[in-house]
């Protein structure tokens, strides 16, 4: 007894559809999450560029940074010569793949030009990566300088949250040193992540992250989430009352939650589709069974009439 061709086709179609759509949705949500703008810093001074030298240097710099993002998660280089030279950096979050790193960094040149224009220095931070450039002689700032911070609007209910958060922070502070600049972990429903600029030494990285943690403790209080970006490092934390989502890897949680919602919807669709296919298969079996019984009964009746 073979499997009905129509039913087999429907089964294969639904398997392909749900698998393909699930993968596409997961990839899409992940990609959109890491390219979300966090903050931007643009110099108020623009290029004085009568012969186009700065523009050429900046274009060459962007091209070099983007091309390197397929191979590494941190890169620093200089384009141009003398007074026309421009130094640039990109860095991706330590848990991204090379493919995701490139997807993130490749958005930055156009975005930088759109929101900052032809300024002599700019820094654009996305959730998954950032890019910085500055002309020769641009004033330097301390690595501990606060560039941006944000604290969630929801506060943790009940007692003990800040103690658990501070324990998670302590683990992270040690982790970024042993992890050579990047560390992420979950602890009692808290997810924490810390990262330093790629050319910062382990000891200085620990001090930078510690400074960012102190900022978060003072300024975010009992908020269930927050991000603090210093010039040479950043930290983020998120509290999930029902437990950290499995496979959590981003400083936010939106992408993972979206993925879970899509998975639940697709699971429901697949279950309904499979039930329909089973019913169709059962109906086909019943039709064949009825046909055979009718043939046997007709044969008996014919022999009775002839006897």
From TrEMBL:
It holds the Pfam family Stress-antifung. The chain crosses the membrane at residues 262-282. Keywords: Cell junction, Cell membrane, Disulfide bond, Host-virus interaction, Membrane, Repeat, Signal, Transmembrane, Transmembrane helix, Transport. PROSITE patterns: GNK2. CDD domains: Gnk2-like. It is a single-pass type I membrane protein. Residues 35-138, 143-242 form the Gnk2-homologous domain. Residues 1-24 form the signal peptide. GO terms for cellular component: plasma membrane; plasmodesma. Its main location: other. GO terms for biological process: plasmodesmata-mediated intercellular transport; transport of virus in multicellular host. It is found in: Cell junction, Plasmodesma; Cell membrane. Belongs to the cysteine-rich repeat secretory protein family. Plasmodesmata-located proteins (PDLD) subfamily. PANTHER family: ANTIFUNGAL PROTEIN GINKBILOBIN-2-LIKE (PTHR32080), PLASMODESMATA-LOCATED PROTEIN 2 (PTHR32080:SF24). This is Gnk2-homologous domain-containing protein.
């Amino acid at each position: 007894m073979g499997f009905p061709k129509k039913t087999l086709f429907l089964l294969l179609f639904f398997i392909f559809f749900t698998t393909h759509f699930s993968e596409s949705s997961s990839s899409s949500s992940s990609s959109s999450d890491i390219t979300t703008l966090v903050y931007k810093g643009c110099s108020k001074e623009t290029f004085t560029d009568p012969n186009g030298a700065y523009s050429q240097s900046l274009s060459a710099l962007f091209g070099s940074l983007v091309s390197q993002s397929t191979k590494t998660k941190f890169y620093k280089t200089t384009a141009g010569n003398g007074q026309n030279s421009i130094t640039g950096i990109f860095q991706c979050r330590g848990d991204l793949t090379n493919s995701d790193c490139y997807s993130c960094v490749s958005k930055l040149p156009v975005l930088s030009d759109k929101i900052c224009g032809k300024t002599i220095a700019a820094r654009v931070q996305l959730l998954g990566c950032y890019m910085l450039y500055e002309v020769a002689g641009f004033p330097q700032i301390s690595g501990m300088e606060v560039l941006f911070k944000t604290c969630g609007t929801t506060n943790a209910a009940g007692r003990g949250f800040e103690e658990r958060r501070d324990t998670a922070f302590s683990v992270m502070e040690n982790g970024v040193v042993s992890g050579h600049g990047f560390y992420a972990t979950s602890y009692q429903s808290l997810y924490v992540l810390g990262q330093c600029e790629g050319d910062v030494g382990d000891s200085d990285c620990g001090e930078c992250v510690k400074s960012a943690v102190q900022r978060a403790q003072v300024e975010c209080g009992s908020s269930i989430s927050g991000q603090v970006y210093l010039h040479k490092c950043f930290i983020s934390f998120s509290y999930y009352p029902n437990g950290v989502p499995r496979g959590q890897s981003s400083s936010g949680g939106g992408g993972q939650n979206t993925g879970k919602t899509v998975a639940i919807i697709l699971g429901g669709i697949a279950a309904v589709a499979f039930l329909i296919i089973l019913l169709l298969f059962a109906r086909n079996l019943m039709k064949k069974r009825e046909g055979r019984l009718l043939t046997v009964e007709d044969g008996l009746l014919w022999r009775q009439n002839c006897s």
